[in-house]
Amino acid sequence: MMPFPQKSGRRGTSILEMVFVCAMIGILTLLIFATYRMGLSATNKSLSQNELLSELQVGLRTLGSNLRQGSADSVSLAPGGSAIAFLSSSDLAGNPQIGPEGQPLWQAYIIFYHDAAEQTLKKRRIELPPASPFRTYPGPIENVDFGSGVEPIAFYLNSGAPVSRMLESFLVEEDPAIDDNYLITLKGLRPRQGVNPESRSSLKASVLVRN
Questions:
Q1: Which is it for strands 83-88 and 181-190: parallel, antiparallel or unpaired?
Q2: Residues 87 and 70: beta-carbon distance below 8 Å
Q3: Which of 3, 17, 52, 154 is paired with 62 by a 20 to 30 Å CA distance?
Q4: Which of 119, 110, 117 is nearest to 170 (CA)?
């Protein structure tokens, strides 16, 4: 007699088990992808915020260093505080010029202003005429005749070079508590670009004019 075949203890995988395993793999894949997306979004947000803060810091640092070395008697603000002008004793190479008695010899007006259309902080330099009495006796730019008569500060808010980008607003105010001290506020906006989310930030500082 032929012996009957022995039954194996193994059995095949059921369709239900296969469906369950596939579902688990799908869920794990979705969780991993969601975690990756969250991490990528946080990284992009951090990069956008850092880029915006860097732009604001450049603008605040540039304005602050120029204003500290300016003439307190020459400072003037545009209506609303969106621009500031003051005399600087530095020449085009950045070297301070000193008069025969050791006093600053003023060279040019420096103007910082907000270009709302381009969302940038701009800087313009306007040289004083060689024989101008303002070289030794400083005064606001509104009192200077550059050849076409005296003009308000708004007349000079053009042709500036960009200092920092993504500037939503710019405000300079006189400090009511301290003479010759100015309060500066820069607010920045980085629009959403591709995977980079919108970012907003602001910086504030006070600057005391030394001369």
A1: unpaired
A2: yes
A3: 154
A4: 119
